[in-house]
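Aim 2 progress update. The chain analyzed this quarter is reproduced below.
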Amino acid sequence: MLKLIGSLSCIWLLLAISTTAQDQPPVLDTAGRPVRSGVRYHILPAATDIAGGLTLVARNGSCPSLVGQEPIAPVVSQGLPVVFTPYVAGETIVRESSSFIIEIFSRLNLRQVY
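Predicted structure tokens:
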């Protein structure tokens, strides 16, 4: 029994190691296209009657450094554009279950990288 568990664990480990980022499906935008590195996107909630897009908010009168949502308004705000960059060098498509960088561009010429 222990040999069987050891063998299955070894096989599982080899399968996990052989899976690369390329095997992961791409994250898709609302048009069904893969999210690409360097392209500006707007993040909106699925239900747009709740709130608007992403924005930077200030806390206690300080410089805006927190990410929040635009409040609900008669016209839904698109919010600030964001750019996704995969953490893997040379990768141009954002993939599921992978690490990536999100850059938020504001009207105040502030750029926050998270």
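Helices lie at 2-18. The first strand starts at residue 40 and ends at 41. These observations will guide the mutagenesis experiments scheduled for the next reporting period.
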